[in-house]
Every structure is written in C-alpha cells, then in structure tokens.
C-alpha cells in the first residue's frame, strides 16, 4: 500500500487524533480537546496503528512525520 493510500485511509477524526498524539497529548487530553470519550480515542489510535502497521504511539508519530502524513512542523 502506498503512503498516499494510507493517508487517504485515515478518517478526518483519525487525522485530528494523530495530530494531537504527535503533539504529545495524552489520551485523556485528546478526548477533552475533541469532546469524545477516552474509549473512542483509544479506538481511533488502534485504527491508526493498524493502518500504519505500527504498535505504539511513538512509531505512529514517527511514521506520520517521516511520510509527511501530518502538517505539524517541528
């Protein structure tokens, strides 16, 4: 699967969760920011892991930054 397809496979909400995850927000803070439950945040994060083929937040963040999936600049 190409990076473009993986990027397009993310829902808008998954992109929002990913951006906050990359900024270092905890699941609780992501939930509060997006006005969703922590359980829903965890479900979105698990979906992102599956789509990227990674196993944790650090890997997901690195993958997203490396493949230019996020607009976040450091």
Write structural notes for this entry.
By secondary structure, this protein is mostly helical. The chain has a single domain, classed as Arc Repressor Mutant, subunit A, CATH 1.10.10.10. Helices cover 69% and strands 0% of the residues. It contains five helices and no strands. α4 crosses α5. The radius of gyration is 11 Å and the shape is globular.
In brief, what are we looking at here?
The protein is mostly helical and 74 residues long. It has helices at 3-9, 12-22, 27-34, 38-52, 57-66. The protein starts with a helix and ends in an 8-residue tail after the last helix.
Using only C-alpha atoms, the radius of gyration works out to 11 Å
Q: Mind telling me the CATH superfamily name?
A: Winged helix-like DNA-binding domain superfamily/Winged helix DNA-binding domain
Low-confidence region ranges? none
Shape: globular
Count of helical stretches: 5
The CATH architecture can be given as: Orthogonal Bundle
Q: Main beta sheet, described?
A: none
Number of domains: 1
Any idea of the CATH topology? Arc Repressor Mutant, subunit A
Total beta strands: 0
Structural class: mainly alpha
End-to-end Cα distance: 27 Å
Strand content: under 5%
Instruction: Give the topology string: H per helix, E per strand.
Output: HHHHH
CATH class: Mainly Alpha
């Amino acid at each position: 699967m190409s990076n473009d397809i993986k990027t397009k496979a993310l829902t808008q909400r998954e992109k929002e969760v990913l951006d906050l995850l990359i900024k270092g927000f905890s699941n609780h803070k992501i939930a509060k920011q997006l006005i969703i439950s922590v359980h829903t945040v965890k479900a979105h994060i698990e979906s992102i892991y599956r789509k990227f083929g990674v196993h944790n937040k650090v890997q997901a963040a690195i993958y997203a930054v490396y493949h230019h999936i996020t607009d976040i600049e450091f």
